## 1
Amino acid sequence: MPLATIDIAFRAATVALLLVLAVSLYRGFGTVLAGRLAAAFAVGSAAHAVTSSIGTASPASGAFAPVIALATGNVVVFWLFARALFGDEFRLRWWHGLIWIAVVVLSLANCLFIAPAAMTGSKGTTFVGEGAVAIFSTMRILFVAINVIALGFIALAVAQTIASWSADLVEGRRRVRVFIVSAAALYGGLNAVLQIVLSGHGASELANTLNSAALAAVVGSIAIAMMRVDGADLFPVAPESKVDATETAAAESSAADQKLIDALMRLMSDERIYRHDNITIGTLATRLAIPEYRLRRLINQRLGYRNFNVFLNEHRIAEAKAALADPSQAEVPVITIAMDAGFQSLGPFNRAFKAITGVTPTEYRRLKASAA
C-alpha cells in the first residue's frame, strides 16, 4: 500500500475521532470553560491533522489557508485548556483572545502572502536575484518563528500542569492530567522541532506518514484515558456547590472522617494555619498525622473543594473581609491586611478577593463603611 494512502487513512481516522470527541465534550460539558476549551482544542487538532506536513510544502490555496491558521492558533487554545483544566479559578480574559488572533493572523499572512511571494520569486517569474533570496529567507524565518511560538505555548502548558499539580485535590484528574498534557505536548513539541530542523526541505512522504501515525496514536490514547475518568472530575458541572456538598458530606461521613474534619477546621479557624508561608497540603497532613492522599480525598469529597489553594484562599478572604469591615482598621493598608491573612503579594489577593466577593478589597471596605 502506498505511503500516501496510509497517510490519508491515519489522517481521516484522527479527524473523525477528534470531531466526535469535540461534539461529545461540547454537548456534555459545554457549560464549563474547560469543557468548551477542550472541544475547541479538539477542533483545532482536527485542523492540524488535515494540514500537518513535515518540511516545507507548496503554498496553501486560499481556501486551505484558514484551516492552517486555525491549526497554528491551536497551540494558544492548548495553553488555555491546560490552565482551565487544572485551575478551577481560571477565567478567560479579553487579551487571551488577542493572543489567539495574533497567532492566527501571523499564520494566515504567511500562507496567503509571504509564502506564495517567496515561491514565485524563487522560480524567477516575479522576483530575481537578491529580491527572491530575501523573500525566501523571510518565509523561512517566519516559518521557524511560528514553530518557536508553538514550542513556547507548549512549554507554558506544561509549566501550568507542573505548578498546579500539588494543589489538585481531584484524584481522577490527578491520574490523567500528566498523561493528557504530556502526550499532547510531546507530540506538539517534536512536531515543532522537526519543522524547524527540516525547514527549507521538501515534504517527505515517510516523515508525513510517521507523523500522522504518531498523531493518531496520541489522540487515541488521550481519548481512552478520558473515557476511563469520570467526566465530572475533569469538567465540574456545578463548581459553585461547595456549601451543599459540605452539608451533605458531613451528614454522611464516618465518625473518623468527621473527627479529622473537625481537627482540620480547628487548624484553620483557631491556629489560622493558612497564614503560614508556603503552607502545603503535606504540611496539613503531617499536622493531622494522616497520609497526604487521605487529606486530599477528605477536602475534596467531604468539603467539596477541587483545589487546595481555593480552600486556603476562602479562609484567607474571610479573615480579610472581617478586617476590611472593621472600623478600627479603617486606616490599615489593604496590602497589610492581605499579607496578614497569608497572601504573599497584592495582585493574587485582589484577584482572589474579587473572584469570591465580586468587588475589589477597596470597594468592599467602602461599601461596609457606607453601610455602617
## 2
Amino acid sequence: MNVLNLVSNADARFYKQQVETLAERGIDCTTATPPGDHLTDEEVTERSAGDYLRFVPEVISESLEGYDLVHANYGLTAPAALAQVRLPVVLSLWGTDLMGEYGWLAKQCARYCDAVIVMSDEMARELGGSCYVIPHGIDMDRFAPRPKAEARAELGWDPDARHVLFPYPPNQEVKNHPRAERVVELARERVDDDVNLQVVYDVAHAEVPRYMNASDVLLLTSEREGSPNTVKEALSCNLPVISTDVGDVASRLDGVSASVASDDDDELAEALADVLADPRRSDGREAVRDISLQRMGERIEGVYETVL
C-alpha cells in the first residue's frame, strides 16, 4: 500500500511514530507539508491562508505519482487532500483542529472524506458524524517505570524535593503555563516540602521517560486537547497525572490511582498537594495497554483497507 500523507508539522513526534509504525506493517508513506515555516527556534507559528492555497497544486501534482490514497493529518490539510479527485481521502483530526478556531472547516471537509479518524470520544461527539476513534499510540517499551532516585541522579534534580512536571513550552498558549504556576503555588501552601515546577521541553523524545520517572506528578493545564500523548506516556510510566478535564483525559484517568481530572483550580491544587505530600506511583500502565503503537498501526491499516 502506498500512501501520500499531508501534514502541517512533519516533526510532530506522534506523527513520526505513526509513519514508522505503518512502515513496519509494509505501508509505504510519503510525507508532504505546506510551504512556509511552521516552527521557529523559539515558538510555533501559524502558516498563512496563502501557504495552504499554494499547497493545493502541489498535492494535486503529487497525487498522480501512483499512490493508493491520501491521508490528511490535521484539519487544515484536508482542503488540499480533497482538491485532488482521483484518490480516496482519509482525514485524521488531532484535537485543536476540530475543537479550535478552524473547527468549522474540519467539520465541512470531514463530510467529503472517505473516512475520518479522531483521537477521542469527545472529538467524535464534536464532529457529529461517522468516524473512527483511534488515539495516538505510545511506545510502552520506551515509556516504562524505573527507579525515581536513579532518574533524578541522572538529571541532577534535588532528591529530597517534590518535582511537578510540565512538559510544554511556556509560550504555547493553549497549554496555559500561567495556570500551572497558579495551581502549583496553591499546592505549595499545603505541602511542607520544597516543590519545584519542572518546565521541560525541547528535549529528545527518547529522554522524556527519564523526566517522567524523575517526577512525582505530571501537571497538564491545557485549554483544549484531543487525546494528549503526554498523559498516556505518563500513565505508561505509572506517573500520577493531575489535569484539566480536556479531550479524553478524564476517561483515561478513570479508575487510575493518584490521578485526577478537574476544571477547578482548587480541586487541581488539592489533588496535586495530596500526591506531593505522600509521593507514590500510579497504576496507570494497565490502563493504556490497549493503545500501544502496534495496536494503533493495526487499526489505521484497517481503515485504509476499508476505504480501498
## 3
Amino acid sequence: MRWRIGSAMTGAAMCATAFALLWPHARDAGAVLSAQDDPVRLSDLQLDSALRGNPALVIENIEAALAAHDPDLANSFVGLAAAKGIPIPDETLRRVAGAVGEENSTGHMAGRFFVGLVTGNAEDGASLSGTLAGDLSVFGDVRDIMREGKHLAMGEDTDRLLLGLAATGLVVTAATFVSVGGAAPVRAGLTLVKDARKAGRLGEGLSRWVGRSAREIVDMPALEKAAATGTLSRPRQTAGAIKAAIRAEKAGGLVRLAKDVGRIGEKTGTRGALDTLRIAEGPKDVARAARLAEAKGGQTRAIIRLLGRGALLLTAGAFNLATWVFSALLALFGFLSSIKATTERLTLSWLQRSKTRRLRRQSAAASPA
C-alpha cells in the first residue's frame, strides 16, 4: 500500500511539474489560435512575443531604415515604439525627424511628382500623385495598354496582367468622374497594384489571382485590334475604342481588391501599400491588411516588416500550436487523476488501519475470557 501511495504522489508531482512548464507555451498557443481570424489581435500577440525575446529589435530596424534612406519606415517604427512603450534615444528621434522633413520638402515632392507623372512608377506619396494624375487623364492607362497591345499584335512577350489592370483602370476612371471623385480611393488602389506589378513587387500568389481576373475582363482579339489602330496623340478617342474590348461587368473582383489597397494607402502611405502587395498571396490577405491598417495606421508598415505575412494570418502550424494546448491539458488531467488516486489510496489505507486496530481491540477484550 505504501508503494501504491508513493507512486500516485510521484505521478502527481511529475504531472504538476510538466503542466507548469507547458502552461506558458499552451497559453500563448491558445491565444494565437483564438485570434487567427483577427489580424489586429494576432499581430499584437506575435509582436509582443517577438519584442519580449529581443527588446532592441525596434531600434535596430530604425537604424537599418535610416541607412537604407527610408525615413517613412523609420518613422513607422518610431510610432510602433511609442505604442509599445519602448524608449528611443533622443538623438535617434532627431535623425528620424530630420530625414522625414527632408523627404517632405517642396523640392523633393515636386521632383517625385514629375517622375510619377512621366514614368507611371509610384514609390512614395508624391510620385503616386503624379502617377494618379496621369491615370485620371486616361493617358497612363492608355499608354500601358498601347505598349502591351503592340507587343500582343506583334506576337511578342506581353504582360497580360498589366494589360488587364490598365483596362480595368479605364473603367474605374470613368466611374471616378461620374461619382465626382467618390471612386478616387479605388482608382488610387488600382494604380498602386499596377505600379507594384511594373516594379516586380506584386506577390506571386496575388499575381496569379490578378492574372486570372484580368483574362476574364479583357476581350483580347478586340483589344489587339484597338491597340493596333489607336494612337497616344488622341488618348481619349483611343480609350473609347479600347473600352469596347473591356467586359466591365467582370471587373468586380479587381475593383474590390483596388478598394482595399486604396484603404491601406490612405492609412499607411504608398510604401506601406506596396509592402502589403509584396507579401499578399490573394485578395483575402489584402482585405486583412486593410483591417490591420485601419486599426494601426502608421505603425502598419513596421508591423509588416517585422512579421511579414504572419501579421495577416496564422503562418505557424496550427497542429503544432494545438499540440502545446493538448499536452498541457494532458498534464493537467494526469495531475488530477494522480490526486484522485492518491486520495483513494490514502483513504483505503486509513480504513484498513482502523479495521486492524478495531480487530486488535476486540481480540484483546476476548482473550481473558
